[in-house]
Structure formats: structure tokens, C-alpha cells
Amino acid sequence: MIEKSCSALLLFGATGDLSRRMLLPSLYALHEDELIGPDLRIVGTARSEHDDAEFREFARLALAEFLPEDRRDDAKLASFLDRLEYQTLDASNVDGFGDLAKKLGDTSCGLSIFLSTAPFLFEPTIEGLRRAGLTHGNVRIGLEKPLGNDLASSTRINDAVAAAFAEEQIFRIDHYLGKETVQNLMALRFANMIFEPLWNSGGIDHVQITVSETVGLEGRKGFYDDTGALRDMVQNHMLQLLALIAMEPPASLDATSIRDEKVKVLRALRPVKAEEMVRGQYRTGAVKGAAVSGYQEDLNEASDTETFVSIKAHVDNWRWTGVPFYLRTGKRLSERRSEIVVEFKPVPHNLFGQRGGRLPANRLVIRLQPEEYVRMQVMAKEPGLDRGGITLREVNLDLSLTTAFAKARRRIAYERLLLDLIEGEQTLFVRRDEVEAQWRWVDGIRKVWDDTGMEAKPYAAGSWGPNAAIALTERDGRSWND
């Protein structure tokens, strides 16, 4: 049984970009709000040669750059930096873990580990922790993606972790699950009676999930070219969003109940046919009025890696039979956006039709970023005497989470995920059977690509992707929510 309190948090990759931008600011926020115990030590480790003082200076500079102005407090910053310690470690050499264990000291009352590393380092890292006695029952380990690049490599990593840690000690991180709006999906569905009776194939025509970026490679050349859009975004973030939208109501809000329902959805995903998907790769174009180069120019070499993917997915169960889930994600697209669009079926009879009234279907738009809102598009009559006919138009019923909860402190996803890791709450983390179901479906897509020789279609940077992605919905009589 893992104790609730935790004496130390160990950060692998502590001098990397994720640490600078997300982890250290998140931990400072938890410290500032007194959400972590005063005795919690935060020990960073990486290959970089630093001592404690140098790591504290590294953290101070990172916080100066990435902390919002309203969160900066000199006294609290000084006390936070006092928590920080550092141990240099080459994770590929298991012999170095003994010095790390000495730095940590007695961890019998609890140790949380945040492991962010290249896939090839997972196995030696886990072995090093095991040899150093850092895998005992009071240790929790958070695993940042990528956890492999297909089912076989993911299985090897999970087997290596499972050889040292029990499943209840393992916290597989998908940072999308820490976003406030993603968690609001549960409240939206299961705390509002108006939606659940329609949340099925009888009431919903189709679902769209879009995760679009305007940026290109942004310093991730090697990783991204080996990974591509399908494995970088669809395999984890987008399939988790799909599972939350499509899952059955869980028996309770505990981690087991929620993850049981998500994995049922993932296992019910129908294999995708070649005509149900589009690969793309951006070429030169303009994003927000600025000229940008194409993917292969950014990479400085020829490549067929996809920077865009669009898929028509199906969940083969009673609730969702006949309802397509359209997924699209890509780089260098028209705008940065993460959203879910649920389009309901049209009314069975348009009684306004003879008076000129058009009735487009109602849409529920759940925007995750950059804004956070829930918007219901409903039909209303325009004011007037209607002598020339009735004019109906869409109006929005808006719930702006930013406005509605203006007094509540907005937290980035890693604040919640790190706190849950420290406290041992697994609900927002991904279970092994979920990961394997996701990889099994994605591997099937990649096999179709290989079997058919499917090439990445070019699209202009600043567009919404290849024309074929538009046709994917248009030939079904539907349109993307652009």
C-alpha cells in the first residue's frame, strides 16, 4: 500500500525544455498554494553537469521566463528554490544510479518519479532504478510519452516497467487529460440530463475532433520525422478525447471505473480502410501572413513523414453504430485549435420550410484551446413581422469557462498531473490496456499505408490540409467546422 505523503519527487530530464516550460512552473505553483508538503524535496537529474546551486539558478531563470507576472513572489520563490537539489546522471549507465540513490537518501516513506526520456533509455533507466533500490512499494513512477512507436516497442517498455513496478504504481501521462476543459467533458455529459438521452446514434449525426497547430518542427526534427502526426497526436491525445466522448457512464468517478469504460471504446474501434483516411505533408505557404517553408525544407532532407492526418473512425457498439468520428490533426494549418464538435441529427420535419426557414443541425462545440468554452449552436427566429418569410439563424448559447470562472485560478495541465502523481491519484493517467488498444488500432492504420503505398498528399502551409481531407467529410454530405 502506497503512503499518501511523499518525501521526494525525482525529475528526470530536469534541465530539458519540458522542465523549463512546464514542470518547474507547475511545481512552483503547487508550492506557492501550499498544495505540496513543506518537507517534499525536489531532486532533478539529467546528463548535464550541475550542482545544487547551479540547478537552482537554472530553475530561477526558467521561472523568470515562464511564470506569469501575477504569480511571482520573491519570498515564495526563494523557499521553492530551497527545495531543489540535483544529481548528474547518465541514464544509459546503470552504475550511476547508486549515486542517485545516495542523493535521495531514505525513500521508505515515499518517492515519486517523473520519467521523461527517449524510448531507448526506458529499459536501462528502469533497470538502474531497480538495482539502486528505487522501485520498492512506496515508489510511484510517472511515464511521459513517447512510450514506444508501435505496439511491439510499447509492449517492451511496459514489460520492463512492469518487471519493477506494480500497475498501481505506474502513472502513464497524457497531458491532455490534465486540461480543465477535457475534465469538463465528464461534467457536461454526466451532470446534465439534457444531453445523455441524445448522446447516441439516435440523436447524434457525427463527431469531429480537431487538433491543429500553426507551428512547424520547432526544434523537434529528429523526433518528429521518426514519429509523424499519426503517432504524435492521434495515438494518444485524440484517441483519449474520443474515448471520453464515446464512453458509457462509469459506475463511479474512481480510476478503475473510468478507465474500464474508456478501454471498451478503444477496443470497439473498427479497423480503418484506405478510403477512410488521408495523409498529408505541408509545403511552402503563409501562416498568419508570414511566408513559411515546406516540411522538407525545414527538415533539410527528403521525407515522406506525414504532418497531417485525417481519419473517419467508427466505434462498433450499440450506442454509436452508424455514427462517424472524423479526426484531423496537422502542423502548419490555418489556426491553432483543439476542439470537439458534436453535430446532432436534424429535426425530422422542417415546419418552417414553406415560409423560407432553413434548419441546419444543432452543434455542440467544445473548445479546449486556445480559448476554453462550450458553445451550443441553436436555431432562433430573427425579429421582424415575417411578411417576406420566416428567417431563422444560428445563435450561440455560450459557456465561456474563462468568464464563468473568472475568479478561479487557471491551472496548466501539469500542475494537476504532478499533484496527482505525488498523491497517488490515477484517474487522469492511462492504463496499460488503454495504451495497447490505442497502438493496436494505429498499427492497423500504418499497415494499410504500407500495403497500399499511401503517399502523403501535399498541402499549402496556412491551409486546412489536403483537399482530400475536405472530401472525406463532403462526400458524406458533411463539413468540417472551419
Distance between the termini: 50 Å
Overall shape: it is: globular
Share in β-strands: 15-25%
Helix content: 25-40%
How would you name the CATH homologous superfamily of the largest domain? Answer: Dihydrodipicolinate Reductase, domain 2
Largest sheet: 9 strands, mixed
* CATH-assigned fold name of the largest domain: Dihydrodipicolinate Reductase, domain 2
Question: How many β-strand stretches?
Answer: 17
Instruction: Record the strand order, biggest sheet.
Output: 16-15-14-13-7-12-11-8-17
- Low-confidence stretches are 1-6
Structural overview:
36% of the residues lie in helices and 22% in strands. With 482 residues, it is an alpha/beta fold. It has two domains: 8-173, Rossmann fold, CATH 3.40.50; 180-411 and 434-474, Dihydrodipicolinate Reductase, domain 2, CATH 3.30.360. The strands form three sheets. A nine-stranded mixed β-sheet has the order 16-15-14-13-7-12-11-8-17, with helices on both faces. Helix 1 (17-32) packs across helix 12 and helix 8 crosses helix 13 (432-452). The protein is globular.
In terms of topology, how is this protein built?
Layout: E1 8-12, H1 17-32, E2 41-46, H2 52-66, H3 74-83, E3 84-88, H4 97-104, E4 111-115, H5 119-131, E5 139-144, H6 151-164, E6 170-173, H7 180-190, E7 204-212, H8 221-246, H9 255-267, E8 277-283, E9 285-287, E10 290-292, H10 295-299, E11 308-314, E12 324-330, E13 337-344, E14 363-369, E15 373-381, E16 392-400, H11 401-404, H12 413-423, H13 432-452, E17 457-460, H14 467-474
